[in-house]
Amino acid sequence: QVQLVESGGGLVQAGGSLRLSCAASGRTFSNYAVGWFRQAPGQEREFVTYISWSSGMVYSANSVKGRFIMSKDNAKNMVYLQINSLKPEYTAVYYCAARFRRPSTSVDAYDYWGQGTQVTVSS
Fold first, then answer.
1. Residue 26 and residue 41: Cα distance in Å, rounded?
2. C-alpha span between 91 and 11 (Å, rounded)
3. What is the pLDDT of residue 11?
4. Contacts with 91 (C-beta within 8 Å, 6 or more apart), sequence order
5. pLDDT score of 20
6. d(Cα 20, Cα 107) in Å, to the nearest integer?
7. Beta-ladder partners of 36
8. How far is Cα 70 from Cα 97, in angstroms, rounded to an integer?
9. CB-CB contact of 104 with 110 (8 Å)
10. Separation in Å, CA 10 to CA 29, 80, 108
């Protein structure tokens, strides 16, 4: 079992930056893929970005490329999502998720989820 806990969300003005964190417990992220997803009010949960723990490969949705940067810290067993140039449309609950081995952009492919952290961007 993998337990995930996100943190770092909050209320931020447009143009600002945030760094979200996701901490894993129960198991290390080794051999796992970790993704970030978000869900805006009234909308379905959508893929943002993922990282393959073993290779370090990162893939992001086109809508966030250049503004969202995912990284990991092997020693701390954590992943991060740096969000720059925040826009009001980025307002959502951001979730960290993990699945064994191969990364995926599909919500249904992930077995473990955190509780989410709210990001609210004011204009």
1. 31
2. 9
3. 97
4. 40, 41, 119, 120, 121
5. 98
6. 19
7. 49, 96
8. 13
9. yes
10. 26, 15, 27
At 107, is the secondary structure helix, strand, or coil?
Answer: helix
Beta strands in the chain (DSSP E): 3-7, 10-13, 18-25, 32-39, 46-52, 58-60, 68-73, 78-83, 92-100, 112-113, 117-122
62, β-bridge pairs? none
Interval 51-68 mean pLDDT: 93
Q: What is the pLDDT of residue 22?
A: 97
Between CA 89 and CA 122 the distance in angstroms is 9
78: number of Cβ within 10 Å:
18
Dump pLDDT digits (tens) for 15-39.
999 999 999 988 888 889 999 999 9
> What's at 57, amino acid-wise?
M
Cα distances (Å, whole numbers) of residue 79 to 35, 59, 96: 9, 14, 9
In terms of Cβ atoms closer than 10 Å to its own Cβ (0-12, 13-18, 19+), residue 45 is middle
What DSSP character marks residue 68?
E
Residue whose token pair is 């989820």: 113
* Mean pLDDT value across the chain: 95
